[in-house]
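S.,

Sequence below, as promised.
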Amino acid sequence: MQDITAESIAEFITSYDIPLMATQTKLCIPIIFRMCQKMLHGIKFNEIKVCENLIIDGHHRYLSALIINHKLGQVPTNSTSATEPISWDLVRFVEDDWDTPAKIDYLNELDAKYNKLEIEFVKQITSR
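The prediction came back faster than expected:
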């Protein structure tokens, strides 16, 4: 897998017809990287929540799955009056990691337990 960078994501967005619209203005590159790595190694994720053609919950999961060509489930949900569609080319991708080291460890432990994997394996595949 190529390295996940703002440039590689922008290139992907311009070359791929993304079926669902974003409703979030910023996404975190390190989270996308970890999710791509986990998906590539068969780790299961919850479905994203969608209202019509809008992503309500699951932007990082959705984009990660598209980048690595991984099938991810969708469940219908409702939107609110504050939900506004955003073109993917207007979404900002930031290098700052939104997850603390403690949260990353917690999520890795959950994923390892749920997928019956060794925690060291999950840590190894998600480290840069």
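The chain has one domain: 6-98.

Coffee later?
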